[in-house]
Amino acid sequence: xxxxxxxxxxxxxxxxxxxxxxxxxxxxxxxxxxxxxxxxxxxxxxxxxxxxxxxxxxxxxxxxxxxxxxxxxxxxxxxxxxxxxxxxxxxxxxxxxxxxxxxxxxxxxxxxxxxxxxxxxxxxxxxxxxxxxxxxxxxxxxxxxxxxxxxxxxxxxxxxxxxxxxxxxxxxxxxxxxxxxxxxxxxxxxxxxxxxxxxxxxxxxxxxxxxxxxxxxxxxxxxxxxxxxxxxxxxxxxxxxxxxxxxxxxxxxxxxxxxxxxxxxxxxxxxxxxxxxxxxxxxxxxxxxxxxxxxxxxxxxxxxxxxxxxxxxxxxxxxxxxxxxxxxxxxxxxxxxxxxxxxx
Length: 344
Known about the structure:
Blueprint: H1 2-15, H2 19-24, E1 34-39, H3 50-61, E2 68-70, H4 83-94, E3 101-103, H5 123-134, E4 149-150, E5 162-166, E6 169-173, H6 178-181, H7 199-229, E7 234-238, H8 265-276, E8 281-286, E9 293-295, E10 308-312, E11 321-326, E12 334-339
Helix pairs in contact: 4-5, 7-8
């Protein structure tokens, strides 16, 4: 009995090994059925969401989840981007869960902080602050912790791009926020009535977008390469932004061709290429527009990605979460269930 118990504990530990250890030892990798939670875009002060968070956390804790992923926007888009709000309060929120919680940054935490309604901050300074304070450890948030791989050095550029493996599935967190992925339109960057941005900050934002987009695509490509190496059944990519999937919901109009969505074109092109070259199932998770949705968005009527699914999580004022199940015996690998929190 003791020997069997020790083996079981060792097997469970393998599920949560750092990426480097697992990727170098694919033979030690064990597939298995498990569940995890997806949530984000909450709490928003303007909607008094704080009163509902305790019930949400309690509901997720009771589900016995392997981990949860928070897909951005720990505050609303009309409140100051202070250190307390995007730092201390965000950390306190993410550490409430019993299960490990992985954080993906959103636009309300940095991209949009130049807006006067957000306090007129330097957006890139806010991004640097988030990296230094929320990504200074290799571990996740939560009462239990999960060791993550990070693209950049801890606390530095691109440390917010993460990766972890559980039960034969590769999970990827990318800094892809709303407001067109942080890509600025030079002709409309300066807006003194609503924004504190200077010309120098506009130029810096353009450079930052180009560099981050390149790093995001590199991290995404490497994650799929790893998934193929270990013969993974699935890859889940988590971002904050809704990249403008709407075909065929709006007949005769494709949001992906509009300029306010062109900041996602490079990443989505890379995602399409990698998905087509991958034998398993691929899921893109995002928040941003706050409508629970599971679908297979079309890149065009003749370009359906059969192994690609999009999941959009709940968001303020709907303080609920999504339970995801990974089942190696299922042809779809992933299954999703909206969890409506009683009383919320």
